[in-house]
Amino acid sequence: MLSPARVATAALLVLLALxxxxxxxxxxxxxxxxxxxxATAKRxxxxxxxxxxxxRPDPVEQNGPIFKDWPKPxxxxxxxxxxxxxxxxxxxxxxxxxxxxxxRRHTFLKQLEKEGWPVIALDNGGLIRRFGREAEIKxxxxxxxxxxxxxxxxxFGVEDLKLPGGALxxxxxxxxxxxxxxxxxxxxxxxxxxxxxxxEAGGMKVGVTxxxxxxxxxxVTNNEVVxxxxxxxxxxxxxxxxxxxxxxxxxxxxxxxxxxTALAKAFPLFQVVLMAHGADEPPHESKxxxxxxxxxxxxxxxGMYAITLGFYDDKSEPVRYQRVPLDHRFADSPEMDELMxxxxxxxxxxxxxxxxxxxxxxxxxxFVGSESCADCHDKEFNIWRQTPHAHxxxxxxxxxxxxxxxxECISCHATGWNPQEFFPYRSGYESLKATPLxxxxxxxNCHGPGAExxxxxxxxxxxxxxxxxxxxxxTSTGAAKEAQRDNCMRCHDIDNSPDFDxxxxxxxxxx
Length: 511
Hints:
This protein has 511 residues and is of the alpha/beta class. The protein has 19 helices and 15 strands. The strands form 4 sheets. Strands 5-6-8-9-11-10 form a 6-stranded mixed sheet. Strands 3-2-1-12-13 form a 5-stranded mixed sheet, covered by helices on one side. The protein has a two-stranded antiparallel sheet with strand order 4-7.
């Protein structure tokens, strides 16, 4: 069985066979050959403009209208959560085709306020999904953004609590928004964060607390975080909340539906319970906890929706429910634009080393850049250079704000990175200045590092030449396509390319 390193090499060799390539002589010519000159001429040919894609239905129309026939409510309760690190849409599939992002969320909230709606905004937590320096920065920036938006309370998610205590404390202190009945930082009796909050809007008082479910607590290994069982903690906090004599009580439950339902039944004081780990999309209609009058709210994942509950002095319909898709009907907020610029500038200033990224050797060897493939594979090279892959890094420089210093972006937009773990391989892309030949999603992202192959083609390794010839005999065109399917899906996943169809896209890039 071939090793993973050699599978990548085999895929490259399939293309060599298709192109009827001949292995070069062991002594490369001192001067460019005629074929090399022709290849250079071909590479200088103008790039064809890609065909304009067929018009797509406007996602706003597909997502439907919001607040249809709603009069101004006495109170608008806006509920969000489980952002999971998606601080803004990446734009890879077109911003108009993606939902979510702090910039749109802020605009939505400002529109409600402009209409004169009294708003209380609560977030269930789950702001990030990874561990490391970038996750810490993203957590702090998100908390800063929610404070700017006027949020009243934020809960804790599992991944949030895996951050170092200092990063958590910084966000808690600076925002003054975090709340939990059963999560404490550093010590159980430290009173940090606050156990509950009471917010007021539209003449209504709203009492809010939060919990992290007992089962989810087991996923957190952090000596700087102290937990209590959720039920025990709520039994202590609920009497204090009652003293506030609120008009509405809300529980931010970062727990699964089974545990959330049990807590809602045990503490009927809460008329609204916001849960985590729900459906991929929030339901179109409100629902209640079985056997109670408690509204159970799911916000889904990645910050793509905001749920709004409208409260009215109307006995026939005291509460209205609306799921709000944060699509391109909401323009980018200038305040969040500035926050995103500051976020990217901080990443740029720290650099890969400051973000704690360390290079790792690739099992297939070193990267050399797509130009090294061009002399022998001029036809294939010219097909590649007319695809968006060739300009992937350039698109990041044109983003608003530019994102070429963001490892989560560059890992799919340059050559020589791991796109799911977000770290560079040794000899992979460093920067446009230091490694310009590794800009773009180049040949080696699909076919593996090319240093050994180039050495063999140049006659530097006769043993490797023989091995390459053997591999040529054992590969086929079908194997080449199927070998790339999973590789393509590493970047063209459901988040970055929700409409990606491998078989359809293959015809656009095959060579």
